[in-house]
Amino acid sequence: EIVLTQSPATLSLSPGERATLSCRASQSVTSSLAWYQQKPGQAPRLLIFDASKRATGIPARFSGSGSGTDFTLTISSLEPEDFAVYHCQQCSSFPTITFGQGTRLEIK
Amino acid sequence: EVQLVESGGGLVQPGGSLRLSCTASGFALSKYWMHWVRQVPGKGLAWVSRISGDGSTTTYYADSVRGRFTISRDNAKNTVYLQMNSLRAEDTAVYYCTREYYAYSDHWGQGALVTVSS
User: Fold this and answer.
1) Which of A49, A98, A102 sits opposite B104 (nearest CB)?
2) Cβ contacts (< 8 Å) between A45 and chain B: which residues?
3) What does the alpha-carbon distance between residue B29 and residue B3 come to, in Å, rounded to a whole number?
4) Of B38, B59, B57, B58, nearest in space to B105 by CA
């Protein structure tokens, strides 16, 4: 099973700052990686798929990069509504799918 | 508007059974693979199962539920099901129904809480 490790577990930043979240895979997942945002009491929302493609309706301040085993989600300038938990997911090991443990982005 | 609504969650004793339903609207269910993903409250997400959209009804399961859970669908009723048997305490979670988009999940239901406890 491909294991995804997200870091840091918690990231404390202020609105307007740049956020950089990491997701590392235990083996190559090529570009088959997605990022989801989850707010308290809500279901996850797809932000980025295929490592760098923004999903429909996702603001341009969200960007994804990486391939192989190392991936990054960048939020260029944090808005108040961006403070949430972020999950990465790999779909390379078809038919099974695995998620990372999540990174909590909190207001400093 | 795409909507997924789960139902059927609740409290069940260890060893018991429960069937979750996911009713879809706003799109042609038969054209999409569908998934179940679960989340222990306060923890990460875990993929459970997926089912093909076409008539072949190809299914896949996570190792942790294979042999105990069965995914199925009734396209005429716009509904996907998750039959859960031999439930264990570690199956306690919120269960989400999701629509597949290029192997990812582009739409999620609000979730159904399943609690396995005596």
Assistant:
1) A49
2) 108
3) 11
4) B38
Q: Say whether A43 and B50 touch across the interface (CB within 8 A).
A: no
Strand pairing class (B112-116; B10-12): parallel
Count of positions (residues) in chain B? 118
Residue A16 CB neighbour total at 10 angstroms: 8
- Is pLDDT of A31 > 90? yes
Residues near B42 by Cβ (< 8 Å), separated by ≥ 6? none
Neighbouring residues of B2: CB distance < 8 A, sequence distance ≥ 6: B24, B25, B26, B27, B99, B107
- Break chain A down into helix, strand, coil percent, rounded to 5: 5, 50, 50
Name the minimum distance, in Å, from the CA of B94 to any CA of chain A: 10
Of residues B103 and B56, more confidently modeled = B103
> What is the C-alpha separation between B38 and B108, in angstroms, rounded?
11
Q: List the structure tokens of B82.
A: 């998750």
Q: Do A99 and B44 touch (CB under 8 A)?
A: yes
Distance between CA B29 and CA A106 in Å, rounded? 37
CA of A46 to nearest chain B CA: how many angstroms apart?
A: 6
Q: Which DSSP category does B103 fall into?
A: T
* Res B57 pLDDT > 90: no
**What confidence category does residue B54 fall into, taking pLDDT thresholds of 50, 70 and 90?**
confident
In one letter, which amino acid is B66?
A: R
